[in-house]
Amino acid sequence: MAIALASALAVALVLSMAAGAASPAALIGLADCATSCGNVSVPYPFGFGPARCYWPGLNLTCDTTGPDPPRLLLGDGTFRVASISLRNTTVRVIRTGSVIAATDITTDRNVSFGSSFTDHGYKLSNGNELVLSGCNLLATLREDLGPSRSGIISGCASFCSFRDKKVNSVGQLTGKYCSGMACCQAPINYLSSPTGVHLRWLDPGNHTEELTFLPTYVFVAEEGWFDRRPLADELLSVKRPASREALEVPLVLQWGVKQGLPPPPDLWVNDTAKGCFSEVLRRLCKSENSVCDGGSLGYTCQCQDGFDGNPYLAGGCQGQSLLLLHYCC
What is the pTM of this model? Predict the structure, then answer.
C-alpha cells in the first residue's frame, strides 16, 4: 500500500512539473530571418529577404510601400497571401479582380484564367470550386494537356426559365447552395493548373434578354466562401459595378518543395524513407521527428504523430514526453 501511494505521488509530481515547466518557443524560421509580414506568419521553407531565409522557389515579397499594414505577396503581386499551412501544404491567397465579367458575350468565349501562380510551381487545390451566375450558360474550367489539347477540370450549367425572366426573380441565389437555376457551383476534385474558362450558350439565337435579366460572371473561389457572401448585393447589383472589381476572392493553392532536389519517382524502390529518397529526407526534413513524402509538386515534410511544429527545421517538431512509472504489487 505504501509503495503504491509513493508511486502515485511520484507520477503526480512528474505530471505537475511537466505542466508547470515553460514550453520552448516554437521554431518558425531560420535564425536572423523575418518570420512575419503584417499579420501573416511566414514559416520556413517560405520566406522573404535574403536568399538564405527561404528554400529556392518559395520566396515571397513583403510589401511595405503602401499606407496600409505590410502585405505578403506571391509571385508578381497578383495574389496576396493570407495564410500558410505546413500541415496541409497549402497557401490561402486573396485575389482582387478575379471575377470574370461576360456581360457582352454574344457567342461562345474562352477567357484566360491567368498563370500568376502556376508559373511559380503552385497548383489549384481541391479546396476550391467553380461558380457561375447567369442565364442558360455552360462554364467549363480547362487546363492544357499538350499541343492543341485541353482537358476539363470542372464545369456546371446555369439555367433561367421563361417565367424567371418575366418576374425578374433571383430568389434561388439567396440559399446555401446554387441549385443550377440562375447560378451554379461545381467542385474541383484534383490538383490542377487551369489556363482558362470556356463559356457556351445552351440555346441558339439572340441573348440580349438573358444578359439584361441577369449579368454573367464566372470565378473560382475557396469552397464555401461563396455561400457566405451576400451574392445578390456583391455580384448581381447592376448599380454597383465597381464592387465586383474590388471584390477580394480567396483561393487555396497547393505547394511542394522541388528546386534543387531530384524529381520524385513514381515507384519507390530500395528506399526506407516514406515517400522520399533518404537524401531528400536528410536535406529537407531537418527535424528528427519528421517524415517525408513526394508527389507531383515535389516533396513535403510532416511531423510524426504526437509531435507538432516545423519539420523543415532542426528541432522543429516538438512533443511532450511523460515519465511513466511501472510497478508491480
Answer: 0.81
